[in-house]
Structures are given as C-alpha cells and as structure tokens.
Design brief:
Length: 131
C-alpha cells in the first residue's frame, strides 16, 4: 500500500479536492485511512434521499470513510455541530473546509475499483478487479 497525506485549507471543497487528488495521482483503488478537520458548509445526501442537504455553520469532521478511484468514489461523512449533534451520510460537492482537513489516503496496488451499473440496486456499484 502506498500512502499519501494531504491537508486541505479554508475554502477548499472537500469532495472536489479528493476527486482531483485521485485523478492527478491516477489512483485506481484507494481508501480514506483517517481524517480530522472542520467544515463551514456540509453537503450531505442522507439515506434513501435523492436531494443533497446543505448545512451551514461550523462542523467538526468526526468521520470520513470511503473507496476512491479514477472511475468514481463513494464517500461517507459524519460531522458534529457546536452542540455535539452528529449528522452524516453521503458526501457531496459543496462541502467547504473551515480551518483544515488533514487526510491520509491509502492506495491499493493489486486491485482496481470500478463503478458499474447494478441491475438490482439501480446504482453504479463497486466492482473490484484484480490487477
């Protein structure tokens, strides 16, 4: 496994920055190993919903997990507000870093993550291809 550490700064879009990094490094299969940081705007699609909910305020990132690839990524986030209320779901574009997002990624060298349409779910789902 190859690892990368990156720090996003105030004003950067969390999802777009991760996507750009993966494309620039031509990562065929990666995962988020850890992340700490904060957002000033969170863009989340909740379970079984089609619309993205945009939340504004100050949020601590308490979890960021996902599979990433040049073929598409699937990332979930959990954030806590100033009262410690936790909310989470599918990370979407529009989540903006407040102070920082310190992220460590792991790149797998023996597989490729593809996203192919699954007839049962109706979504593009993960297909793991050995290299």
């Amino acid at each position: 496994m190859i690892t990368y550490a990156l720090r996003l700064k105030n004003g950067e879009d969390l999802n777009e920055s991760l996507d750009s990094f993966i494309k620039n490094k031509n990562c065929k299969a990666a995962c988020i190993l850890t992340c700490v940081g904060s957002l000033q705007r969170a863009a989340i699609r909740f379970a079984n919903q089609s619309e993205t909910k945009t939340l504004t305020g100050k949020f601590e990132i308490v979890s960021l997990v996902g599979t990433l690839s040049v073929h598409g990524s699937h990332i979930h986030i959990a954030v806590a507000d100033e009262n410690g209320n936790l909310i989470g779901g599918h990370l979407k574009e529009g989540g903006v870093v407040f102070t920082t997002a310190e992220i460590v990624l792991g790149v797998l060298e023996d597989v490729e993550f593809l996203r192919l349409h699954d007839e049962k779910t109706g979504y593009n789902e993960l297909v793991i291809k050995p290299l």
